[in-house]
Amino acid sequence: QVQVVESGGGLVQAGGSLRLSCAASGRTFSGYAMGWFRQAPGKEREFVAAISRSGGRTYYSDSVKGRFTISRDSAKNTVYLQMNSLNPEDTAVYYCAAKSGYGSRYPGEYDYWGQGTQVTVSS
């Protein structure tokens, strides 16, 4: 069992930056690939970024590539999502998730989810 808790959301103006954190506890953090997803009102949950167990591989959706960076700190059992050049289309609840094995773009493959943190980007 792995517990994940997101933090760092908030209100930011377009063009600004935020860093989300996802603290994991429970079983060995290094044994899990981690992902970030987001869900806007009335829309399905969509993939944002993922990182492999070692941190050596990262994956991004086309909509955030070049603006967002996912990273992990094994000493702190924490995954980060640095979000730059935010725009109103990035407004959503952001979720952190963990899965065994390789990183994935598909939310159905993740085993453990946090409660989410709201990110609102004003124009």
Give the key terms.
123 residues; mainly beta; 7-stranded mixed sheet; 4-stranded antiparallel sheet; 0% helix; globular
Would you mind describing this structure in some detail?
With 123 residues, the chain is mostly beta strands. It contains no helices and eleven strands. It has strands at residues 2-7, 10-13, 18-26, 32-39, 46-51, 58-60, 68-73, 78-83, 92-100, 112-113, 117-122. The strands form two sheets. Strands 2, 4, 5, 6, 9, 10 and 11 form a seven-stranded mixed sheet that branches. A hairpin with a 6-residue loop joins β4 and β5 (46-51). The protein is globular. The termini are far apart. The mean pLDDT is 95.
Task: Present the secondary structure layout.
Elements: E1 2-7, E2 10-13, E3 18-26, E4 32-39, E5 46-51, E6 58-60, E7 68-73, E8 78-83, E9 92-100, E10 112-113, E11 117-122
Parallel strand pairs: 2-11
Antiparallel strand pairs: 1-3, 3-8, 4-5, 4-9, 5-6, 7-8, 9-10, 9-11
